[in-house]
Every structure is written in structure tokens, then in C-alpha cells.
């Protein structure tokens, strides 16, 4: 049985409580490992290590820090297969996806921010003949990074890398549901020569360990990705402590398909944007609005291509749909399927738990599920399901599509399918979404601002936004 450890002060150590939590493999429903059930004492030890490491780490040049981060990126690449196997087993995601998306992106995160810090310039404001102002961006200090289970190493490193790049030291907690690759990252950091205490990884539950990170007075900023309810609780905890917060929260993203689109491209990508990672990507487009003249054509082709989405053992190379992450999450999604029926939805595909024979007989598998005939304002179309469930809805005018798209409390991402350039610009700018993709989905450039409007979050990650978040701006004014 795999027993994970915390990574504190450069060492792999057990939790001070001596307690462990079970780690379950979603594809089998079996306990296959244990993780430290860390609490405030472990977090305090991690913060002490980070505070001790901070002066030397921030004093290094951006180039020196960057070299170590690029070395970590190279080690992630060199261990791609091992990490992809671990991610697939821990999360239930198809190994094919972990190999091309999760693990390569984790390496890119370290590579991108490892080199970005060297290009991080600052502003000067000259008051002609009077004074010169310049801005210094100091690393904010010890920071906390808390991440969710859906893209474990991908999102964990997306937070850690920019913090380290600007000279912060980090106390990080992965989701207790998917801790495996974060543990392996600790080993790779040792191998890369990251100085002890610069990055500390503590495992444990949200209330037991995450809460202690948010409350610790030595932690100056929190970068959090997770659910909107958790984000709200975190904001309440952090506000009186005046901590800087970056919150990347839930979504209920619209996918707008106009009649003038390239239908083949729209359908093929919509299959991905609906069901990639079993629909458990915050950016998945679960509300598909289709302009009425092509509604039937889109639906027919979408349902045809859906048949090729093989549900099966995530460790098999040709599996396209793996297991949902946990039994509790499977039941939450099944409850939403029941609700969709109650709200008058017509089931077009899926809707049931799948029994995958062999070692996966007790796994948490669900058929990709499609409903139609649901109003835009019903709960199925308003609440985040975060599973392989989408709705198809015809619309008649651009205005109708825009107002339905904007009708939820969320505003993370949106996708538009059209070949009309004017419409693309007009609709994109009318949408209340932090990210709008036109004729593509999940196309990422790490320099761009990433984050949501409304209940999808506060602040932006990515590029300069992330480097600024982990720094404190100071104005120096020199009178001539
Ligand atoms: P979650 O909010 O349950 O947990 C996220 C993390 O927060 C976990 O590490 C958890 O242990 C920790 N946590 C829980 N309670 C805490 C507390 N009181 N104090 C500190 N930490 C605490 O979310 P989840 O179920 O792991 O992830 C799914 C959610 O994440 C979905 O809503 C999804 O949309 C969202 N998400 C958003 C983005 C984005 O970029 N906006 C990306 C991925 C996932």
C-alpha cells in the first residue's frame, strides 16, 4: 500500500499527528494508498521552514531561481509516463489525457514561469523636472496554494511555479482526493536541487489542513482553485487577516453554436468541451445553445460522435471516458440526472452508471449524458454539475443566445462557433465570461489572463497577472 508523506523543509516526512487518510482509486473503488492527515502543527512546521528559506531564495537572481524551475520542468518531462500513470490511477482520468494534457502542462508551467521572471519588468513614472517614481515589486513572502482534484498536477504547479519564480516561498496543499502527483513532485524538487523549505507540500483535508493554511498569520497570500462555496468560506476567513486572495471557482459555461459555423469542427470540439475528463474541467461547456436552423443537424452528428467515446479502464490507452473522481461525486451527478428528468428534460444519450468488467467492476463510471427540452433557467441549466452531463437548447436570435449564456451566477468561460467575424467580436464582448474562445476550446497561451467573472472567482492567473499577484508593489519617489 502506497503511503505518501508531506514534503517539509526538503524532507519527506510523516504528519505530526501520525494519522492517515485512505486514498481510493476511482476506477476500482478500492483503497490503494494512504495520505498524511495533516493539521495546524504540520502547517506551522511548513511555514517555519518557508520563512527560514525566504531570505536566501528571494535574494537569488531571477535567472538562478529560473534555472531550478526549468530543471523541475525537465524532470517532469523525463518522468512523464510515471506521472501520467499516477494521475490516471489517482483521479480516474484516461491515461491518454494525462499523457498529452495534464503532465506536459505541468512541465510547461514550470518552464514558462521559470523563464518569465527574467522578463518581468517594472514601471517608472517621470514627472518632468520634478520627480521620478519607480515601482519595485517585492515577493510578498510565504504564500499558500490550494488546488482541486480535477487537474491535480496541472493546477497545483500553475500556482506554485509563479510564486517560486518571483521569490516567494510556498506552503501548498493538493486535494486530499488526488494527492499522488503532488507527492511525486516533492521527490522531483529534491532531485532538482530546490533549496530546503522553498516549497513545502502538506497533505490533508480542507477543514483540517487547508483551513490552517488560510488562517496562519505567516502566510501573506492565498491562491485557491476549487468550488464557489469553498471560495466564499475562504474569503470570509482571509478578509479580517487582510490576506491577498486569488480565487478560481466554479463555472457553468455556455457553448454557442451559430448557423454559419463550420459544423464539423463545432461538433468534434464540442464533444471534447462537453466530456473531456468526464466533464470535470471547470472550462467544460455544459450548456450548448444551437441556432435553430442547424439544431437537428448538430444534434444528429453530436450523438453519432458520442458513440465513439469509449467508457472504460482509465489505464487502457484507447479509453476516452474514465471514472468520475469519487463515489460521492458520482452520486451528486446522478442526482442532477434525476433532477433533469424531473424538470422535463428529454434524455438523448447516456443517463446511467456503467459497469466496466474486470478490475474496474466497482468503479465510478457514468455514461456521457445529453438532455434536450430544458429551459435555460431551470436548475439543471443554472447549477454546476461538474460531470459528463450537457444540455442542447435551440435559440432564434443572437440576443436570445447572449442573454441565456449570461443568465447564470457564473462567468468563467464561453465558446462561440461562427464564421462571421463581426458576430464573433460582438458576441464575445457581450458575454460575461473571463475567457471566450471563438472556433476553439481550451486553447491556452500561458501569457493570457485566466480567471472568471461573477461567482467564478476574483483575480486572474497567468502571465504577468500571476507574477504581480505574488508580489507587493512599492512606489519609490525621488525628487529631482
Ligand atoms: P473544493 O472547493 O471542494 O476543494 C478545493 C481545495 O480546497 C481542496 O484542496 C480542498 O481540500 C480545499 N479546501 C476545502 N475546504 C477548505 C477550507 N475550509 N479551507 C481551505 N481549503 C479548503 O473543490 P473540488 O471539489 O476539489 O474541485 C471542484 C471545483 O473546483 C469545481 O467547482 C470546479 O469548477 C472548480 N475548479 C475551478 C477552476 C478554475 O480555474 N476556475 C479549475 C478547476 C476546478
Automatic annotation (TrEMBL):
InterPro entries: Ald_DH/histidinol_DH (IPR016161), Ald_DH_C (IPR016163), Ald_DH_CS_CYS (IPR016160), Ald_DH_CS_GLU (IPR029510), Ald_DH_N (IPR016162), Aldehyde_DH_dom (IPR015590). The active site is at residue 248. It comes from Hymenobacter glacialis. Residues 19-476 form the Aldehyde dehydrogenase domain. The lineage of its organism: Bacteria, Pseudomonadati, Bacteroidota, Cytophagia, Cytophagales. Pfam families: Aldedh (PF00171). This is 2-hydroxymuconic semialdehyde dehydrogenase. It comes from the Bacteria. PANTHER family: 2-AMINOMUCONIC SEMIALDEHYDE DEHYDROGENASE. Belongs to the aldehyde dehydrogenase family. Keywords: NAD, Oxidoreductase. GO terms for molecular function: oxidoreductase activity, acting on the aldehyde or oxo group of donors, NAD or NADP as acceptor.
